[in-house]
Amino acid sequence: MIRPGLAGVLPLLACPSCGGGLTDSGVDSVGCPDGHRFDLARQGYLSLLGPRSRTDTGDSADMVAAREQFLGAGHYRQIARAVADRVAAGPVVEIGAGTGYYLSAAIDGFTSTDNASAAATRPIVGLALDSSRYAARRAAAAHPRIGSVVADAWSTLPVLAGAAGTVLSVFAPRDPDEITRVLAPGGRLVVATPRPEHLAEIRGPLRMLAVDEGKPERLAAAFAGRLRVRERSDLRAELQLSRRDVGALVRMGPTARHIEAADLATNLAELGDVTDVTMAVTINVLER
Q1: What is the rounded CA–CA span in Å between residue 286 and residue 288?
Q2: pLDDT exceeds 60 at position 283
Q3: 197-201 CB contacts, 8 Å cutoff, 24+ apart
Q4: Average pLDDT, whole number, for the chain?
Q5: Is residue 123 over pLDDT 60?
Q6: How confident is the model at residue 110 (pLDDT cuts 50, 70, 90)?
Q7: Helical axes 61-72 vs 101-111, angle rounded to 10°
Q8: Are 119 and 159 in contact (CB under 8 A)?
Q9: Rg of the Cα trace of the chain?
Q10: 55 pLDDT higher than 90
Q11: Fewer CB near the last or first residue (10 Å), C or N of the chain?
C-alpha cells in the first residue's frame, strides 16, 4: 500500500517515460495513462528514474548515515530555520533532499506561522527528490507529509509543470530549466550556498574540497531571464564540534569521494577533542 506521505505528493508526480500524471495502481505500484508502471520500494519510496538518469553521483550508505548523525545533532539547525522561514507556499519540492532534514523543517515551519491560518487546516506536503536510494529510504521516514522519490537532478524531474509552490536546494545541484518548469507562477526557489569561509578551520587539515567564491552571483546569472533575485542573506555561526562530529561532517559531503577512510582517521586524530568551526552560508531567494 502506498504510504500517506507518498500519496500526498502523487498529484505532483510525472511519469519519467512519457511525462503523464501518475495514479495509485492499487498493487504496490503507480502508473500513468500510457501504461508505464513503477513499483513502490518496501521502505516506502518510489523510484522514477528516466532513460537518461544517472545514479552514480548518489550518496553512499555511509555518506547518508553520516549526514543523519551530523544533522540529527542539530549543528545546522540555523540553516534549516532560515530555509523554513522563506517558504511562502506549498507544495515544497526539495532537490537533493538527502535525509529530508531541511524539507521536514520547511513544511513544519510553514504550517506553524501566525499568518498561515489556511495552511493550518490544509498542511502543505513535501516531495523529497534524491538520486541515492539510501537517502530516499531515510527521507521516506522523516516526516508523515513527505513523499520520497529517487530521481536525477540533472535529468527531467518527475514532477508536473507548475506543481511546486517552493523548490529547495540546500548544498545541492540545480538545473535552471527544470526548476523553472516545475515552479508555479509566483513560485519561489530557496537556495543555501556555502561561503568561502565555510568550514575554513578544517578544510586544510582534513583536505576537504575548497569552496569557490561568487556562488550567489553565479546562481543569479544561471537563472537570469527565468527567476529574479528577491533576497540574499548571509548566515554565520561558530560551531563547537567534537572529533566525531567533524568526522561525520567530512564523510557526509563530496570530500568523502576523494579521501580514504584510513587517511581521514589519521587527519582527525591530529585535531583536538573539540574544534571551533565557522558555519557560513548564503540564503538566496529567487522568484518566478
Answers
A1: 7
A2: yes
A3: 197/278, 197/280, 198/278, 198/279, 198/280, 198/281, 199/249, 199/277, 199/278, 199/279, 200/278, 201/275, 201/276, 201/277, 201/278
A4: 92
A5: yes
A6: confident
A7: 40
A8: no
A9: 19
A10: no
A11: N
* Average of per-residue pLDDT across 87-95: 96
In single-letter form, the type of residue at position 184 comes to: A
Report d(CA 165, CA 218) in Å as an integer: 23
**Nine cell digits for residue 57:** 553521483
Instruction: Answer yes or no: is pLDDT of 198 > 60.
Output: yes
Class (C level, CATH) for 4-287: alpha beta
**Structure confidence at residue 111 as a pLDDT band (50, 70, 90):** low
Inter-residue contact 138 to 128 (CB < 8 Å): no
* CA dist list (Å): 36 to 46, 147, 157: 14, 20, 16
Q: Which residue has the higher pLDDT, 113 or 13?
A: 13
Task: Please state, in angstroms and rounded to a whole number, the distance separating the CA atoms of residues 17 and 34.
Answer: 9
How far from chain centre, in Å, is Cα 117?
A: 26
Count of beta carbons in the 10 Å neighbourhood of residue 9: 24
